[in-house]
Amino acid sequence: MTTNAGVMGKLRTGIWEDNPGLVQLLGLCPLLAVTTTFVNGLGLGIATLVVLTCSNVLVSATRRFIRAEIRIPMYVLIISSLVTCIEMVFMAWFPSLGRSLGIFIPLIVTNCAIVARAEVFASRNSVGASFLDGISMGFGFALLLSAVGVFRELIGQGSIMSRMDLLFGGEPMNGLVLVDGGFLLAILPPGAFISLGLFVAAKNALDRRRHQTNRPMTSNALR
Fold first, then answer.
1. Which of 8, 93, 142, 190 has CA atoms 20 to 30 A from the CA of 2?
2. Model confidence at 23, in pLDDT bands (50, 70, 90)?
């Protein structure tokens, strides 16, 4: 049985230590393309989280019945079926958000992070462990999408959480407007690369500082 410490450790791995977008640098196409606003990043992040978790569970449950020679096509078939269901959900209940995300919902099928987790983890572990892996990795990716979306929206438009009506319906919402206007580069393609680079640099700096802080403590303990 998985302990609470094990669950928290797995979540920490997916969110920080082995984040698909921040550390493994997988799935960068949607990460860079749709994160012009928080709501876009959150919407695609939730869709990716659901697909990644469900695909992990299905791959793990059927791993004994899938021949090694056709495993990758079978993974893609499972993932594409799930993505089709997600796309239909968006078109039925969140049509405006679906139109805003456009082609990047179907492109979840080609997300390297999902196929990688199916091959590296789900095909070799139990259903429960694969479910937890999907939740942790998917949540880490969704959190990064949302964080980059908030950053780019704030710098590029001077607002936070605008157009939340794409998720909840109703009249268009301007969100929290902090400044009048913004730095246009942040919401253009170059801004996506710069923003991701800043996030990666910040993570590496924090890891380096934490390592330097822990090293003297370890040395003193050994003495």
1. 142
2. very high
With CA atoms as reference, report the closest residue to 137 among 1, 4, 26, 5: 26
Q: How far apart, in whole angstroms, are the C-alpha atoms of residue 131 and residue 60?
A: 9
Would you say 152 and 36 are in contact if contact means Cβ atoms under 8 Å apart? yes
Whether 60 and 126 have beta carbons less than 8 Å apart is answered as: yes
Quote the pLDDT of residue 2.
Answer: 56
**Residue 76 Cα to chain centre, angstroms:** 18
Structural domains counted in the chain:
1
Above 50 in pLDDT, residue 177?
yes
User: Is there a contact between 36 and 149 (Cβ–Cβ < 8 Å)?
Assistant: yes
3-state secondary structure of 172: coil
- Which contiguous run of DSSP H or E holds residue 159? strand 159-160
Give the Cα separation of 104 and 111 in Å (integer).
10
